[in-house]
Design a protein that fits this description.
single chain, 330 residues, Nucleotidyltransferase, domain 5, 2 domains, five-stranded mixed sheet, 9 helices
């Protein structure tokens, strides 16, 4: 069985997906990164190795996310690509004529505009946590509500109370004030959903035209209250894919399959055994010029596997590059 591995490593979650030749999900892992991306990737690889059939053969590997270069070195990636491309490809795979992708993760959010299966514009918010999964987790914990029940409870509200959603501090203060005034918890939760959607659209869309079909992905897409708030704000249906929480990894796996079919090369995949290797990461600042670049280094024992981060390329040691793929969205 030929398979394609996609890995998406972010600040909050690390996701791994295996696709078959028909671009169907064979297996996936959704793990917490917890500030240790290498350990998270190794845990996912270890879990895969216990479950995969003996005849499964990985023919291509793609990595994406904030730790895509590091992950690419660890596993032996054939394709390394940014999150925008990975999420756009995954959304186009689920909804071929998708025009807008809404993606909200643990600590950032993004919006992607597509026309004729090509990305024409995008915007990202990595500065403020308002509207991200971590903020919703915090509020659910403060209220003593399991995050899995957040959206379900919010859906019970006929309407939401007005919550200031432009800042996490103001939003939390406003929620506490509304609780003290005696508003039902479901109205407060749905008011927060409406505020976060309003904040997302004002900050990221910035007056740009959002056209359907719209695909909503990322961990927050599991929140039915946020989905309803988006649909009410936009005036049309928002599609949430079955594997919404691992769409970045799916996009990376699709890129790997595209690479395999286009290039006809042997994969650089190092095997699931990388889960047992002791990798060491460190960094240093180069003071040879005024750039003062921070260089990242990955080693196994005394052997340097990769270095990157220097603007002039002086310290670069790696065969892994961020490559462009042909026919990215098919």
């Amino acid at each position: 069985m030929k398979a394609f591995l996609g890995i998406d490593v972010g600040s909050v979650s690390t996701n791994l997906v295996l696709l078959n030749e028909k671009k169907e999900v064979i297996d996936y892992e959704y793990l917490r990164t917890r500030g240790e991306p290498i350990k998270a990737v190794q845990e996912g690889m270890r879990n895969f190795s216990r479950r995969i059939p003996s005849d499964l053969e990985v023919k291509g590997v793609g990595t994406t996310g904030s730790a895509r270069f590091l992950t690419g070195v660890i596993v032996g990636a054939d394709v390394i690509k940014n999150e925008i491309t990975a999420h756009a490809i995954a959304a186009s795979h689920v909804v071929p004529d998708v025009k807008t992708v809404l993606e909200i993760g643990g600590q950032d959010s993004k919006i992607i505009f597509l026309r004729h299966k090509a990305v024409v514009d995008f915007a990202m918010n990595t500065v403020c946590a308002a509207g991200t999964g971590s903020f919703l987790d915090h509020q659910a914990a403060r209220l003593g509500i399991p995050i899995e029940k957040f959206g379900e409870i919010a859906l019970k509200a006929k309407s939401g109370v007005q919550i200031a959603g432009r800042c996490t501090v103001f939003a939390e203060s406003d929620m506490i004030h509304k609780q003290q005034m005696g508003y039902p918890i479901e109205e407060i939760l749905y008011g927060l959903c409406e505020a976060l959607v309003r904040n997302y659209l004002n900050n990221l869309a910035k007056g740009k035209e959002i056209l359907p079909p719209v695909v909503f992905q990322g961990g927050v897409a599991a929140n039915k209250g946020i989905k309803r708030a988006f649909e009410e704000a936009l005036g049309f249906e928002v599609v949430v894919p079955k594997f919404h929480h691992v769409m970045g990894a799916i996009g990376a796996a699709l890129l790997a399959q595209n690479w395999y079919e286009q290039e006809k090369k042997e994969t650089s995949f190092k095997g699931f055994e990388v889960s047992e290797i002791n990798y060491l990461t460190s960094g240093f600042f180069c003071d040879d010029c005024s750039n003062n670049c921070e260089v990242v280094e990955v080693k196994v024992g005394e052997d340097v596997l990769a270095r990157w981060g220097s603007r002039c390329g002086k310290w670069e040691v790696s065969e892994v590059e961020e490559v462009s793929a042909h026919s990215l969205i098919s």
